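Late entry, written up from scratch paper. The run itself happened at the end of the previous shift, but nothing got recorded in the book at the time, so transcribing now.
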Amino acid sequence: MVVRTLGLAVVLVCLGCGGGGIGSGESGTREIGFQSAPMDEVPITLDTQDLQGRADGVTNFVRVYPRETVVRVVAPQTYQGLPFYRWVWDGGAADAQAVSVPADQVSGLTAVYGDGCTFSPNYTDDLERLLYWQRMPVRVFLVLDGNATQSAVEAARTGFEWWNGRLGGIVRWTEVSTPSDADVIVRWRDDLDGNLLGYTQYTYEVTSGRLLSADIVIRSGLDGRAGEGIAAHELGHALGIGGHSPLHADLMYPTYTGFNMNEVTLRDANTVRTGHCHLFGGSRSTGSPGGATATSRIVCPSN
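Output as recorded:
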């Protein structure tokens, strides 16, 4: 890898929990204590009770309490010996250990532990290189020519948005209206060879690993769930993932099989976060910006 990151951080995700309210139509604020682990689907222990006095689990907590109720979620001060760093969510972040949000937004909260530099689990060791953008948001321009059908463009926008929804607003992209303002340019082509569904070509500084520009090409007419998945996969490369995950479940698995590339997994998100550790308060061990540049292309075939 070009980038060597130091330290350790754990991302702790609260999935599927809601909160607040006692009795029909009532609302209020409840403090939720939970235990979890740095993976996508884990049991969550809540210190509230349901209407029958039983300890709340994920399912009945969602069923019983109004989703618009304000919920106060408190992160433990430490996790596995690591200090609490901050909460992140789509479009925001907070340094306080306690945050208050509507119950239907709790599933989007992520608590970060450690120094904000290396996020686990990830697959950084499996990559040829891990690159980064110096500033956010990454600006994306879509070339809406004759090869870009409306359904394919909408699928790409939806797939790209998977990353914003997963990364918690710190690493993010935005669409721009002119190519001169863009970091990443997206095109559709009808002449891709054989089973090639798309590719990403990016230019970066060899010593520092800083991304300078990227071009994404997607097969024309690729829409629906496949179009979403391929577009999201290619944006993952444009966000700095210089290689692929060895796990079929991850978005960044090298081959589209028709049964994968359905979401940005925690491993996908943590790999991008690790590459952009400078945005989380961490430090990078890289060379000085500037100097020689290189261009690389990564392709995405179907199985």
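The chain has two domains: 29-113, 124-301.
(Scratch paper discarded after transcription.)
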